[in-house]
Structures are given as C-alpha cells and as structure tokens.
Amino acid sequence: MKALSILLVEDSPSDVRLIREALKETPLQVDITVKRDGVEAMDHLHQVEQGLQFRPGLVLLDLNLPKKNGREVLAEIKSSPKLKQIPVLVMTSSRADEDVVEAYTLNANCYITKPIDLNEYLSVVRAIEDFWFITATLPDSAHVPQTSFPPLSLAQPPTVPSSTRLETHGVKTCALPAHGCIPTA
How far is Cα 25 from Cα 22, in angstroms, rounded to an integer? Predict the structure, then answer.
C-alpha cells in the first residue's frame, strides 16, 4: 500500500499531537512532516521545488503562524508552478468570513474551522482522511510536472464565461460543513 505524505504547518504542539493521534488508525501509511511556522514551511517547500525533498501529497495549513502567516504561505504555494497542484487544506481556529473568503481567493482547496471539543476534532480529522485519502484522487508526486503545463493548442478553444471558470488545476476542492467534506469542484 502506498504512503501518503502530509506537510503539517502548525505551531500548536497539542494540535500536532491530535492530528497524529487521529491518523494513527488510518488504513494507509501516513508520513507527516511538521513545520512550526510559515518560514520553515516555505524553506521546506523551496527544497521540494529544487528536488531536494519529497513532494507532499497534501498540506494541512494553519492560518495563524509565527514569522510568516498561513495566508502568505498559501499564496506562495499556489503561485508556484511546481507546488500549485498540491492540495492545501486550511485548518484554523478562525471562523471569520473574511478569512474563509481570503483562503478560497488564494486557491485553498478546503477551509476547516478547528473544533474545540476533542471528539469533534478527531471526527473532523477522520473526515479529512475519508475524503482526501480514500475518496479523492491526488496527483502522484512521481508524475507531477516540474514546470507549468504547456498551453493547449486547440483549433477553437472552448469558451467558458469568466464567472464560471475554476482554477483548480485538476485538484478537487471541498467545503467541510460540520463533519463531512463535500466536493465543490
């Protein structure tokens, strides 16, 4: 069985411990790399771009990070031709509408508000596992292009109204209301 590599960008040791604990029982092998701030996360991801580190299959990103906040990290990931295909799930304590809107504007693939209750927290992590590890098909890091996709050469390009165009780059996006992850694209 293939391992799933997760980059967890989280400064709270208790949240790191809860996520590790919840993922222990998954049927898949899960390798978790933890970075405690935005600078560490981007240093790691720059090494991924250079081929010096393995590319994570998924990033779990807190917004409220020291040194460089999660919004800045998300913007850098999604603006990089070598990183933008990695699904980024924002998992944060903020329930503010402006944070949700900004995260999706920066092309987050999912926004999750951390529950306060321990059982609910574990349930949310298991919902992430069920959708992102089992249901969704993630890009195989061995087959992800290391440069931007070349432009398509079509005789007549399809016309899609700009209001309906989604920039998902082949990665499913979702919303996570209560305890279920629902695909949105």
Answer: 7
